[in-house]
Design a protein that fits this description.
Number of strands: 19
Number of helices: 2
Number of domains: 2
CATH superfamily of the largest domain: Immunoglobulins
CATH class of the largest domain: Mainly Beta
Mean pLDDT: 84
Strand content: 35-45%
Shape: rod-shaped
Largest sheet: 5 strands, mixed
CATH topology of the largest domain: Immunoglobulin-like
Helix content: 10-25%
Low-confidence stretches: 1-7, 15-45
Length: about 220
């Protein structure tokens, strides 16, 4: 009977109630340690990575002596400040890290391909980049501004003035090819009036094109 009184239904109910409360308190944190719950992050914790965007279609060719300029369009959904960077920038160009503008004027010595150019933008958290692209610098076509004298016999040495004359491959007097041509500079070429030449325009050819003089050269006896 003493055993029954000591463990009466009322006492047992009280015992289980206390045990349940103890379990709940331990599960809610207590001093049990363990990892934090995945609820609301603490103040100052990042709320997700903001990735900027960048778009644009750069020109892939430019004529030597002409200006090249490309500015990508970039934005950030959270308004973070953006900075730009570039890889494999052409030697003749400059780059603005604030605006992303790639610009410059290649010279005749820069004719060729400039490959794997990559422009990126960063907001301090993440980076985005345009697809790599190439720029081909092509030679500018020649021009004839003037020539020394307006007439002369076969064998006369004529100085032709113009632009983009480096790489001259052919000079003709009214269609008659010159056999002796000397490129003095990018602005001057010397040609000797060939046998059989007649009065007419002078043409000059490079790999980039052909130029024709405005006036005629008169071949005298």
């Amino acid at each position: 009977m003493d055993y029954v009184r000591r463990f009466s239904p009322a006492l047992l109910a009280g015992y289980f109630l206390c045990a349940a409360v103890a379990i709940i308190v331990t599960g809610c944190g207590g001093d049990g340690g363990g990892s934090m719950s995945s609820g609301t992050p603490p103040p100052g914790a990042p709320q997700g990575i903001a990735v900027p965007s960048i778009t644009g279609t750069p020109a892939t060719t430019v004529v030597a002596g002409s200006q090249y300029s490309f500015r990508p369009s970039a934005s950030d959904t959270k308004g973070y400040a953006l900075t730009f960077s570039i890889e494999n920038m052409p030697s003749w160009a400059t780059f603005d890290a604030t605006t992303g503008v790639l610009s410059g004027t290649p010279s005749a010595s820069n004719v060729g391909h400039f490959q794997s150019i990559t422009i990126s933008v960063s907001n301090g958290q993440a980076m985005a980049q345009l697809a790599s692209f190439s720029i081909e610098v092509t030679a500018a076509p020649p021009t004839i501004a003037a020539f020394q004298g307006t007439s002369g016999p076969v064998g006369t040495k004529v100085i032709i003035a113009g632009t983009n004359l480096t790489g001259t491959t052919s000079v003709k007097f009214n269609g008659k090819p010159v056999t002796i041509v000397t490129v003095l500079s990018d602005q001057f070429v010397q040609a000797t009036v060939p046998a059989g030449a007649t009065t007419g325009v002078i043409t000059l050819t490079t790999a980039a094109g052909t130029a024709t003089s405005a006036g005629k050269f008169t071949v005298t006896p």
